[in-house]
Amino acid sequence: MKYDKCPTISVITCTYNSEVFLTQALSSVESQSYQNIEHIINDSYSTDGTLEIVHDYIERNKDHYPIKLVQSDPHGVGNALNIATCEATGDIIHFLHSDDYYLNRYSLEKVVHYFNENPGLVWLTGNFLIEFRGRKITIPQTFLLQSNMEIALSCMNFISHENTFMRTEALLGYGGFNETKQDVVEYSLWLNLMRDHQPLIVDDEFTVFIIHKGSTSTGSPLKFSKALLRALHTQRKEKILPLVGNLTEKKSYQQVMTLIKKFNRWTSSLGIRVL
Fold this sequence. Notes:
The protein is of the alpha/beta class. The protein has two domains: about 240 residues, Spore Coat Polysaccharide Biosynthesis Protein SpsA, Chain A (Alpha-Beta Complex), CATH 3.90.550; about 25 residues. It contains ten helices and 13 strands. The strands form three sheets. A seven-stranded mixed sheet has the order 3-2-1-4-9-6-10, with helices on both faces. The longest helix has 19 residues. The termini are far apart.
């Protein structure tokens, strides 16, 4: 894997009628002390003032770093992220949602420091930092991940999407994001990536997640409940059992599946299909 002292960071932002919070998100990018970046913005044909904000941002920063605006039909966050990812050319990738913002001007500089201090690092993740009614609150879920990441992730998606950075080639190699409405967008990616590459888990924060009424997963108790159901669906799809982990890697599961296959072959020979 390439080791680069000054890696290019691809910042991905997806927008759709995002004018309320977008200016803050974009301002946090252009104020970064680390400017070896490219910014890819995927807009799903917004009808409010989003594109005007984006074009003003591009004009201000066109001589500072590459900015690419693409547009795609609105088929969900996962689809928008995957389309934008295909445009990324940087070494490291980060997804800054239109209603998030970098904590301070040194966020990306800190990320590069972590990667440079850990040659061969594929991904890193930090704490969940939220803004609720103007107040910032840090949720140090990394303590759970450091204790036993497999068990922690088998119970819930404890990784903060906003505070996770990874090698672009790793993201592309592990299938990208879920696009179905039944699944958590990034949960499968973490589960699959973890099987081959343990992340650097840092007691640190880089990005702020704003909780507001329009939030997909936290905007209301109903939305939060739906997010939990999506997490459970993803666990079943990936054959993850809470407090146990990946069932397909367990010897007992493999033995049961072997017996089922043998039983199916025997019943099929009799013209019967049971399991």
